[in-house]
Amino acid sequence: MPAGRHAGCSRAWQARPALEIARIFRAHGDAYRAGHVLTPEQHRAMRDIETCRTAARGGHLDVCPDCGLVTEPAYNSCGNRHCPKCQALAQQRWIEERTERILPTHHFHVVMTLPSDLRQLLRRNPRLLYGALFAASARTLLELGNDPQRLGARLGITAVLHTWNRDLEFHPHVHCIVTGGGLSPDGQRWSAAPTDYLFPTAVLAPLLRGKFLDHLRRLYERGALDLQGGCAELATPRAFD
Prior knowledge:
By secondary structure, the chain is α+β, with helices and mostly antiparallel strands. Helix content is about 40%, strand content about 20%. β4 (about 155-165) and β5 (about 170-185) form a beta hairpin. α1 runs antiparallel to α2 and α5 crosses α6 (about 200-220). The radius of gyration is 25 Å and the shape is flat.
């Protein structure tokens, strides 16, 4: 039993796991930062996680409702969206909200990925180009779903952006959870898709590519893209083409 906790206290004691991201960062963060180039966002995330629920962020005292005498410090959370401690509750709430919206049908998992050639452009224009990827992905799936030769129905789609792969390398892609069927054009009938197949990749890929490039070209023609830094060579129309 931890020192200072009364034997009669019924409040459950939850020991911290032996290994935490925060402990690893606190032990090795300075050495890692000294040997690696990090973005300001990555620096902030590491610092926030290192100080999360520590005295550095201040806190308050919790009093046991049973014995009334035991107090211990409860330090404030960092609130950073990358912190595994802070986001556990938010993640669970998000999952529950998505679960409530899931239709009673089978679903397909479709991943829409951008090539590495566009990564410099994505880093300088994340909001614009992530939006373009979402739009192109949704329009691709909806267009194929509405095709009378395929399903002839409006699909339901939940799309989530991932900007890193399993090795923590920059790799933007969108995960789409797609209903195995959809509503008929008049909204009165459900058209079910096969349980083992939605659309062929050979059709999905060029359609996505065309829609994304069309969106990209319109952004360029409006002068909306930031083409400085590593993207300066794309500034002229010929190079961009």
